[in-house]
């Protein structure tokens, strides 16, 4: 086995890396379109470094490190995948050792709860810092939710909807809510450094999404008395299959909670996305296991648990 740094301009190696990810049943592969654009359109403030493990000409393992743009990381996000037919041969351990040799930082990795990666880490004494539940809603099979009762708790609010980039009149509020999410989202026992969000970062994120071919639908709640956006949710189409969308941000400003705004904006956004993308059949969501309020909202919308994913830091 050999381990070497990926050259992003090597399209064959990029394709081999993608094919490897697609073969692993316990790895969340992006769409091929998203994957091939990841170095040309990186996420704001982030760079990626990739190590490929080869057995002859075949790529049998990969480790992708996500680092802040300046390369100085207190936490390195790691995606590590080994071909199912080449596991238990020390490939994952070899890749991890190389990552350790290059980055003396805290490593964060997500793996399927109970899967091969999970068992590997637990056997070495590591424990998950947080576990999330993946759930799915088959929106094409469900009638539109009646929000009459929910709206009775939300008088004085109205909806604002948009596709892709946030309109100029709301983007400052969108940035503030995104920053609030980084403070409020459950993080379990993980060491997390909040990311500062402003309009420039939101616009940079939107540019990355556009460059990677993503499409999104957002619904927000405006507080009519102040004109401010105080709740927002977003669905993103990121895969090669237009039948699937992923639930992204949902956040309600603390002073406006308890008014069913989370349920209202998510239900309205499902309808909005279905109108705009008639092929949509399934929405996938991820929520921290202890985020019981949002999981309760999702259950009302018809989401059903699929599996659990754990995050380790070591």
Give the SSE layout:
Layout lengths: L1 E4 L5 H13 L8 H5 L9 E10 L2 E11 L6 E8 L8 H12 L3 E7 L3 H8 L6 E8 L10 H4 L5 E7 L7 H14 L14 H13 L3 E9 L4 E10 L6 E9 L8 H16 L5 E7 L3 H10 L2 E10 L1
Parallel strand pairs: 4-5, 10-11
Antiparallel strand pairs: 1-2, 2-3, 3-4, 5-12, 6-11, 6-12, 7-8, 8-9, 9-10
What does this structure look like?
The structure is a single chain. This protein is of the alpha+beta class. It has helices at 11-23, 32-36, 91-102, 116-123, 148-151, 171-184, 199-211, 261-276, 292-301; strands at 2-5, 46-55, 58-68, 75-82, 106-112, 130-137, 157-163, 215-223, 228-237, 244-252, 282-288, 304-313. It folds into 2 domains: 2-126, Gcn5-related N-acetyltransferase (GNAT) (Aminopeptidase, 3-Layer(aba) Sandwich), CATH 3.40.630.30; 135-308, 3-Layer(aba) Sandwich (Aminopeptidase). A 12-stranded mixed beta sheet has the order 1-2-3-4-5-12-6-11-10-9-8-7, with helices on both faces. Strand 3 (58-68) and strand 4 form a beta hairpin. The protein is elongated, with a radius of gyration of 20 Å. The model has no long low-confidence stretch (mean pLDDT 93). Keywords: Transferase. GO terms for molecular function: acyltransferase activity, transferring groups other than amino-acyl groups. This is GNAT superfamily N-acetyltransferase. It comes from Paractinoplanes abujensis.
């Amino acid at each position: 086995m050999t381990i070497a740094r990926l050259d992003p301009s090597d399209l064959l190696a990029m394709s081999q890396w993608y094919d490897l990810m697609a073969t692993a049943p316990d790895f969340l592969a992006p769409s091929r379109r998203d994957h091939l654009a990841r170095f040309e359109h990186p996420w704001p403030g982030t760079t990626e470094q990739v190590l490929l493990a080869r057995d002859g000409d075949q790529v049998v393992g990969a480790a992708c490190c996500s680092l802040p743009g300046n390369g100085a990381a207190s936490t390195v996000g790691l995606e590590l995948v080994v071909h199912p037919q080449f596991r238990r041969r020390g490939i994952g351990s070899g890749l991890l050792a190389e990552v350790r040799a290059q980055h003396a930082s805290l490593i964060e990795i997500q793996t399927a709860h109970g899967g091969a990666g999970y068992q590997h880490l637990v056997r070495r004494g590591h424990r998950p810092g947080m576990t999330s539940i993946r759930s799915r809603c088959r929106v094409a099979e469900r009638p539109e939710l009646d929000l009459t009762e929910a709206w009775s708790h939300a008088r004085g609010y109205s909806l604002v909807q948009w596709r892709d980039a946030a309109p100029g009149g709301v983007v400052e509020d969108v940035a503030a809510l995104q920053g609030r999410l980084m403070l409020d989202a459950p993080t379990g026992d993980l060491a997390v450094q909040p990311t500062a969000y402003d309009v420039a970062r939101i616009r940079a994120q939107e540019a990355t999404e556009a460059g990677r071919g993503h499409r999104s639908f957002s619904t927000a709640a405006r507080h009519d008395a102040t004109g401010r956006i105080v709740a927002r949710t977003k669905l993103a189409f990121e895969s090669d299959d237009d039948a699937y969308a992923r639930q992204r941000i949902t956040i309600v400003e603390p002073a406006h909670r308890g008014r069913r705004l989370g349920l209202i904006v998510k239900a309205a956004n499902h309808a909005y996305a279905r109108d705009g993308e008639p092929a949509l059949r399934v929405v996938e969501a991820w929520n921290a296991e202890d985020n019981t309020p949002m999981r309760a909202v999702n259950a009302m919308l018809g989401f059903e648990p699929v599996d659990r994913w754990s995050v380790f830091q070591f």
